[in-house]
Design brief:
The protein has 13 helices and ten strands. The protein is α/β, with parallel strands linked by helices and 335 residues long. The radius of gyration is 20 Å and the shape is globular.
Length: 335
């Protein structure tokens, strides 16, 4: 309760300290993901929470409790890689992105060797994204090596899922050269699997994933449960992917827990944004009004908390935005 009161007080101070935003509208674009995944609904909730358009009712009168004058818009994209590149280039002010991809792009490592993205800054760790390896109902594999010569959905180009999945598959000797890969978003992959055009597909997202809920309740599906040894191997290949599980009952017909790797989703902004603006956005993200929106929206919204906002951020190696850092220090969340 003390923390909530502290955050509420800081949110009020942020609003009072930024009267300029109340005079002219400030548009704030947030890159998310496909409509059938998790980024899009979560991004929409965040956009709603941090917005307070000019002329809107005041927060204490039942209106919006975001940054005065801010109009945030969630845009559907191909997810992590696209979002980070667009934030770097100034095409988006913010984006949701997987932690491993954000680190690699910021530092210019791995697939992005020699192409650093120095403008990327973190506002918050949001929620874990569990990797779903989806197959037709009743289908099983021993490990990722069994996907050789199969028709496999590797997620869309520009997604963090695709970058990570190709690294994982390579550790088992599976590459684009010995599988029939399909670059599709989650909804397209689910449709192809239901039609018998795919043997399996990957998608990293916070459960439940809408397209999979529909697939499970209509055509049916199975999820691959990784062994502990395979999870350890994946963690060696991509340290940002840690062991996790999808509880039984999340998807119809899958009653047991599914062991799988997971990566954190981050809210990323541009270093070019003013400290005052990002301070106000961070305060709005953690106020009581946004808390209600998150709790009543997508199931993963309940996991987005101020207490876990900085989890893993320091180890990630991508800086906090100074505006966000100032908020966390004042809230007592950062020493």
């Amino acid at each position: 309760m003390k923390l909530l009161k502290s955050l509420a007080g800081i949110a009020v101070m942020a609003a009072l300290a930024t009267p300029a935003f109340a005079q002219n509208p400030t548009f704030f674009r947030i890159g998310t993901g496909g409509a059938g995944g998790t980024y899009f609904p979560i991004g929409g909730t965040i956009a709603n929470g941090i917005s307070a358009p000019p002329g809107a009712r005041a927060c204490d009168q039942g209106g919006q409790c975001g940054v005065p004058g801010l109009i945030a818009i969630a845009q559907s994209t191909t997810a992590s890689v696209f979002n980070n590149a667009a934030v770097q280039n100034g095409e988006l002010e913010a984006g949701l992105a997987a932690a491993d991809v954000t680190r690699s792009m910021y530092l210019g490592e791995g697939k992005f060797d020699g192409k650093p993205h120095p403008n990327l800054r973190i506002v918050a760790n949001l929620f874990p994204e569990d990797l779903h390896l989806v197959m037709p109902a009743g289908a099983t594999i021993g490990d990722l090596g069994d996907l050789e010569d199969k028709r496999v959905g590797i997620a869309q180009a520009g997604s963090g899922t695709q970058v990570a999945v190709l690294q994982m598959l390579e550790a088992w000797g599976v590459t684009r050269d010995n599988m029939d890969e399909a670059e599709l978003n989650n909804s397209q992959s689910a449709e192809r699997l239901a039609d018998g055009q795919l043997d399996a597909y990957f998608y990293a997202a916070g459960w439940p994933v809408a397209a999979m809920v529909q697939l499970a309740s209509t055509k049916g599906m199975s999820l691959h449960s990784f062994s502990e040894a395979d999870l350890a191997k994946i963690n060696e290949v991509i340290p940002a992917y840690i062991p996790s599980s999808i509880p039984g009952g999340v998807y119809e017909g899958i009653d047991t827990d599914t062991l799988t790797p997971a990566v954190s989703a981050m809210l990323v902004v541009s270093s070019e944004l003013s400290d005052d603006l990002v301070y106000g956005i961070t305060a709005a993200l953690w106020n009581d009004n946004t808390r209600k929106l998150l709790d009543n929206g997508h199931a993963k919204g309940k996991l987005i908390t101020a207490d876990t906002a900085l989890a893993g951020v320091e180890a990630l190696g991508v800086p906090l935005h100074p505006g966000a850092e100032r908020f966390y220090r004042e809230a007592g969340l950062l020493k």
